[in-house]
Amino acid sequence: MSRGLLVFVFLLLLNACDTGSENILSADTDLLLDTQHGGGSAWGLADCSACHALTVIHKNEDSIRGIVNDYGHDTCTGCHGSNGTDEKRQCLICHNDSALPESPLQSGRHRHDFVAGVDNALQDKQCVDCHYASDMNGVFEINRDLTRYPDKNGINSPYTSDADFCLRCHNRDHQQAGFEISGKAYDDTLIAIEDSYTLVDKHGEISATGNGTYAGLRAAYRYGSRVACGDCHAMHGTDNNKLLIDASDKGVSKLESAIRQQPYRVNINGDDYSQLCVLCHAMDVLQDQGDVDTGNGLAGVHLTGESCIECHSHGEAVQAGM
After folding, report:
1. In this structure, is the dihedral angle defined by the CA atoms of residues 193, 162, 67 and 132, taken in order, positive or negative?
2. CA–CA distance, 75 with 68 (Å, rounded to integer)
C-alpha cells in the first residue's frame, strides 16, 4: 500500500473514531449505536479498540469508568449493542456478583429464564430480552429500561406500569412470538393474570376503604392501589418457588428503606406465605396471631405457620384475594 493511501485510510478512521465517551446515538434507543456511528464510517466495525482507547473511554463517567477499565472492550456491546456486527451483547460481564453485585441482586437458584420447570443461570440473551435498550443510568424507568413489546392491539404502546410489561406476555390470546406460554389451564395465573389483575383483589385494581377486620399496611402501601408484580416476584434470582422474593431487598418497592434494606428474609414453607405478607401488612388492631413473629422478625398478620390459600387465592374476584 502506498504512503499516500495509508494516510488517506488513517484520516478516514480518525474521522470515524470518537476517542472520548460521546457517540452519535439513535434517539429512540439511547445508548445503542446505529448506522450513523462515526458518521456512518464506524458502523459494522467489531474492533472497538481501533478507535476507542481504554485510557479515555468514559473519562467523565466515574460510576462505570473503573468497570470498563477492569473488563476492557468486551463491555461495549452490553450498553452500545453489536454495532451492526455478529458480536454478542455482553451484560453479565458487568452485572455480576463482583462488579455490580446489587444491580440487580441475582442470588437464588430460581430465575426468570423463560424455561418452565428448569433452573438455569441467567445468560446475556435473557438480559437483552427484557432490557434491550436500557439507558444504564441507575434509575429504573419502565418505558426506557424495558424492551417494548406490542400490546393486545399489536401496538408498541407505552407501558403504564411494570405490571403492564409483564402482562404483554402473561395472557391468553396475545402472547409474544418466541415467548409463548402453553399447556396451562384456563385459570392458571400465568395466563389468567391479565383478567384477574383488574378484579377485586388486594394486589390488583380494587376499590376498598382499608377499614376491614385486618386493616393495616406499612409505609406507602395503600388499600385501593396497585401492587407491582416485581414487588412480590424476583426476576433475577430467588430461592422461593413461583419466583417469589426471598428477601425484602428484592421487591416491596414502596417500603421504607429501613425495612427493605434490612433485609428481612422470606421463606415460603408449603402454602404458608406469612413471611411475604408481613412485609407490607401490619395490623392496626392486633387480632388472632397479629403479634406473633412470622419467623423473619416481623409480626402483623392474622395467621402464620399454616396454609394461606385456603382463604386467599392469587387474583380471584373476591375480597380476600392474594
Report:
1. positive
2. 6
Residue 63: the pLDDT is 85
| C-alpha cell belonging to residue 54 | 481504554
- 3 state SS of 62: helix
Does residue 163 share a domain with residue 274? no
| Confidence at residue 230, expressed as pLDDT on a 0 to 100 scale | 93
Q: Cis link prior to 158 (omega < 30° from 0)?
A: no
- Shared domain for 160 and 44, answered yes or no, is no
- Domains of the chain: total: 3
With a CB cutoff of 8 Å and minimum separation 6, the contacts of 6 are: none
Q: Tell me the C-alpha distance between 320 and 306, whole Å.
A: 16
For the chain, the straight-line distance linking the first and the last C-alpha, in angstroms and rounded, comes to 73
183 in a domain, yes or no?
yes
Evaluate whether 253 touches 233 at the Cβ level (below 8 Å): no
267 and 295 Cβ atoms separated by less than 8 Å: yes
Q: Hey, which residues does 281 pair with through a beta bridge?
A: 217
Count other C-beta atoms under 10 Å from residue 291's C-beta: 10
Residue of 214, 233, 230, 222 lying closest to 287 (CA atoms): 214
Which grid cell sits at 97? 456478583
- Asked whether residue 180 falls in the same domain as residue 262, the answer is no
Distance CA 21, CA 43 (A): 16
Kindly state the cell numbers that stand for 77.
456491546
Domain of residue 189: give its range: 156-193
- Determine phi and psi for 22, rounding to 5 degrees: -90, 140
**What pTM was computed for the model?**
0.84
Q: Is 60 inside a domain boundary?
A: yes
* Positions in the chain whose pLDDT score sits under 70: 1-29, 198-214, 315-322
